[in-house]
């Protein structure tokens, strides 16, 4: 029996080892080279997730170094023919000595770039495209080496979803731009709008400045929602970042912003929508690539007309706009949903209730029968003492658990209100503190000033010295703020390289002196290249008519002028 168990274990281990060895040999034998040409930079979350999906699916099929990944950065260089020419020359130069067996392209820009250009290193090589939102089928005439998966758009189903979640909505505004992709999306949207409820007022905005969009969003009536298609830049040429501009839009908007590009949008304040999954999309493209490299003809693989869109939502934004969760479609994915107390400790609670119920039942049964069972009184007495000890032990255990829970709650409260890196209060705590100060000083003769502070050229610090040095600069700057402000003042990590000072009992002139002292203090932070840290600061003094948003807005505008006027300066008055 012992020998049989030993032999079975040895055989399983041997088979597993052979399987791993065979997978490595298979990857080594498949010495194919694949080029993944991305339209956008990996800072764009969609591109990063799609690339991860491709890499994961190809793992074990080809050696990792045989997957070449290029990024066109088309969100910053939108439809720039000179830039495209330089990319063409670069690719020709890089891959003249590295023959490519197959190309995977992601998103519209890379697809149309390959359609319009012919490369010596990739002549007649198979192309598997993905992420194309709107396909002009005419461009594929004669391109027998192209196949792939259309990302598509889900305008019709998103509008239907909006109507089911918010039946009071009568107006939907689709947001796009004037880029080549934006124009194609607009044309497709016009066709899709014809298929939805014609009682809705549906508009397409694609010619606006970002400031105008923010202004309109801040005063949008409640019967309106936004559905974001794609924005690369506004009509002033300003780059639209999903991590900054989209987040700012969703923060200021009085109405929900819906979208369809999953991981890019879901954590930037978008309420959700029918959304796709870039990781799954990339995996699907890699599977097609493997079929082709294993010998299947490109012409035998039809183009898949649309990727999968799943109802996906941000719990915090649903709460913000009081959306009834019962209206969500079946199978919806909900991000950022907090764990309730019962959900977190359900096993412990249910076990405790079961034990208490069981013990209570025993006590009741014993009590009910005690009068009829005179002969077993001694036994019942022993049982009751035993039960009491067990209850006490369980009560003591629960008390210990309650102490642990209280400690965890205190820790969660600290984490919710503190910036871990600088150990300063975070934006949430700062907003609460500012609101309390405004309530105290709104009818007081004392002054209240705020200072919005930005570390100059912080991105260059990260780029030149690395994010670890950038983190050290943030910590050192926070220490300077704490050392040089008054005991009654508050320093807050506002976000990124921005800090906020709350200065009670300080008018503009007094606040200016404090900030001047701080500017001198941070100049002692010296970088490896002997450069020093400087700050741009915007001041605003509380007015009787101010609310939190208007006071911060004036400080932020003055910070904007400080940066625009050369940085390393303090602006204390709003400019017109």
UniProtKB/TrEMBL annotation:
**Kind of enzyme, top EC level?**
transferase
Gene3D superfamilies for this protein: 3.30.70.270, 3.40.50.2300
Q: Which InterPro entries match?
A: ABC_transpt-TYRBP-like (IPR007487), Diguanylate_Cyclase (IPR050469), GGDEF_dom (IPR000160), Nucleotide_cyclase (IPR029787), Rev_trsase/Diguanyl_cyclase (IPR043128)
Citing just one GO molecular function, the answer is:
diguanylate cyclase activity
Q: Which UniProt keywords apply?
A: Membrane, Transmembrane, Transmembrane helix
According to UniProt, the reaction catalysed is: 2 GTP = 3',3'-c-di-GMP + 2 diphosphate
Q: Does the keyword Transmembrane apply?
A: yes
Q: Under which name does UniProt file this protein?
A: diguanylate cyclase
Q: What is the lineage of its organism?
A: Bacteria, Pseudomonadati, Pseudomonadota, Gammaproteobacteria, Alteromonadales
């Amino acid at each position: 029996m012992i020998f049989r168990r030993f032999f079975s274990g040895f055989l399983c281990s041997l088979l597993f080892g052979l399987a791993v060895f065979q997978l490595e040999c298979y990857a080594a034998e498949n010495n194919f080279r694949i080029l993944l040409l991305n339209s956008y930079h990996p800072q764009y979350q969609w591109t990063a997730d799609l690339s991860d999906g491709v890499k994961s699916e190809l793992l074990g099929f080809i050696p990792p170094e045989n997957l070449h990944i290029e990024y066109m950065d088309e969100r910053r260089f939108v439809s720039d023919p000179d830039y495209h020419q330089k990319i063409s020359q670069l690719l020709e130069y890089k891959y003249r000595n590295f023959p490519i067996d197959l190309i995977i392209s992601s998103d519209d820009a890379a697809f149309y770039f390959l359609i319009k250009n012919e490369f010596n290193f990739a002549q007649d090589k198979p192309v598997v495209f993905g992420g194309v939102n709107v396909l002009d089928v005419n461009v594929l005439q004669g391109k027998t080496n192209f196949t792939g998966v259309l990302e598509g758009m889900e305008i019709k189903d998103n509008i239907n979803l909006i109507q089911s979640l918010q039946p009071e909505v009568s107006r939907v505004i689709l947001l796009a731009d004037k880029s080549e992709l934006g124009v194609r999306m607009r044309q497709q949207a016009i066709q899709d709008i014809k298929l939805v409820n014609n009682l809705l007022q549906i508009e397409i905005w694609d010619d606006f400045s970002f400031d105008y969009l923010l202004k309109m969003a801040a005063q949008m009536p409640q019967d309106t929602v936004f559905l974001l298609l794609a924005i690369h830049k506004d009509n002033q040429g300003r780059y639209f970042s999903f991590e900054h501009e989209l987040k700012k839009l969703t923060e200021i908007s009085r109405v929900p912003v819906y979208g369809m590009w999953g991981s890019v949008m879901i954590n930037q304040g978008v309420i959700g929508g029918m959304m796709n999954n870039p990781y799954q999309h990339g995996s699907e493209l890699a599977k097609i690539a493997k079929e082709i490299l294993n010998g299947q003809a490109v012409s035998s693989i039809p183009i898949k007309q649309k990727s999968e869109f799943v109802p996906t939502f941000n719990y915090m934004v649903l709460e913000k706009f009081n959306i009834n969760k019962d209206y969500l479609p079946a199978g919806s994915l909900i991000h950022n949903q907090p764990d309730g107390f019962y959900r977190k400790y359900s096993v412990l609670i249910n076990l405790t209730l079961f034990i208490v119920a069981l013990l209570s039942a025993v006590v009741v049964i014993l009590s009910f029968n005690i009068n009829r069972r005179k002969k077993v009184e001694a036994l019942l007495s022993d049982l009751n003492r035993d039960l009491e000890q067990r209850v006490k032990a369980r009560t003591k255990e629960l008390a210990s658990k309650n102490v642990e829970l209280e400690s965890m709650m205190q820790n969660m409260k600290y984490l919710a209100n503190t910036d871990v890196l600088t150990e300063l209060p975070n934006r949430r705590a700062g907003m609460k503190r500012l609101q309390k100060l405004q309530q105290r000083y709104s009818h007081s003769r004392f002054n209240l000033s705020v200072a919005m502070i930005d570390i100059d050229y912080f991105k260059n610090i990260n780029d030149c010295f690395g994010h670890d040095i950038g983190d050290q600069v943030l910590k050192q700057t926070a220490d300077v703020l704490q050392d040089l402000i008054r005991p009654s003042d508050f320093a807050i990590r506002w976000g990124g390289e921005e800090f906020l000072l709350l200065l009670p009992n300080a008018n503009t002139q007094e606040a200016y002196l404090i900030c001047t002292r701080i500017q001198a203090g941070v100049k002692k932070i010296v970088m490896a290249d002997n450069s020093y840290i400087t700050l741009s600061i915007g001041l605003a003094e509380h007015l009787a008519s101010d609310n939190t948003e208007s006071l911060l807005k004036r400080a932020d505008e003055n910070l904007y002028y400080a940066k625009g006027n050369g940085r390393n300066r303090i602006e204390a008055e709003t400019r017109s």
